[in-house]
Amino acid sequence: MLFHDLIDLITDVIVLLVKIISAYVESVVTVIINVPKKDVRNQVIVITGAGHGLGAEMARMFAKLGARLALIDINQENNERVVEEIKESGGQAFAYCCDITNEESIAEIAKQIQWDLGDVDILINNAGIVQCLPIESLDSKNIKRTFEVNTFAHFWTIRHYLPKMVSRGTGHIVAVSSIAGLIGTAHLVDYWYIYFDKKIFYLIYKLFKTISASKFAIVGLMEALEMELRQNKANDGIKLTTICPLAMTTGMFKKPKSRFSWIFPVIDARYVAKETVNAVLRNQTLITVPKSALAFYGIGKCLV
């Protein structure tokens, strides 16, 4: 019996290694070969936090590609302004005012979107908040609110849209996280914070050493969801994409600055939106914006 268990273990390890190598080969091939972009014309795309910043920029870009948009934001005025702009440009969009931290509200909005537009093809969880406070200054209300918006809302929307995607055998879920979702530091425990050290090589590491429990959770959620879909044989038709940008001009941070802007510039929301849309069209699993961010983090890890 022990012999058979050993054989099973060895077999499982070999299968795992083959899958890992295949994944890396696939990643390299997609970089070298210009993978055709998918067509999103007439597809229904839900975007949370669509009333300003990155969400609004993505909405405008997807509208130009012919997608039909369901834009969700708690700020009704801003959201409707984006919808009117898209309609004036010949696009199709609907505005939905919703507190995404409320699962019942998400359910109601989902019913309305189904009625207005039909089945959802792409879900983009973009909404997020940041408190910008060190942990000793964060009260329970701050922490709970950060997780409710940045993390739990992803669960509520996915729970409503994923089952239908699985039954249809097609769909795409996008999560906007942060570099903070990959690595960690002080002063923004609930979200993230960037700081610099005097030594240049140590600085490279410290620049990306950000901490964000809520953003780490998003990356973990998407990784676990991918494994679950793979086990259920649903990963071929349903795609997952996680976006991890550096600080950008969305209005979330007050006058974001970078001491070494020639290496690590503060990113314009339009650029992040463009990279995000491109990642969705190419079915990429994980990207950092800029792409160099992950490489510099790796270099820093080797030097410290």
Question: Beta-strand percentage?
Answer: 5-15%
Oligomer: single chain
**H-E string:** HEHEHEHEHEHHEEEHEH
Number of domains: 1
Question: From the alpha-carbon coordinates, what is the Rg to the nearest angstrom?
Answer: 20 Å
Average pLDDT for all residues: 78
Report the span from N to C terminus.
46 Å
How is the largest sheet built, in terms of strand order? Answer: 3-2-1-4-5-6-9
Under CATH, the topology is which?
A: Rossmann fold
* Unreliable spans: 185-211, 258-262
Family: Belongs to the short-chain dehydrogenases/reductases (SDR) family.
Keywords: Membrane, Oxidoreductase, Transmembrane, Transmembrane helix
GO molecular function: oxidoreductase activity, acting on the CH-OH group of donors, NAD or NADP as acceptor
InterPro entries: NAD(P)-bd_dom_sf (IPR036291), SDR_fam (IPR002347)
Label this structure with key terms.
single chain, 304 residues, alpha/beta, Rossmann fold, seven-stranded parallel β-sheet, two-stranded parallel sheet, globular
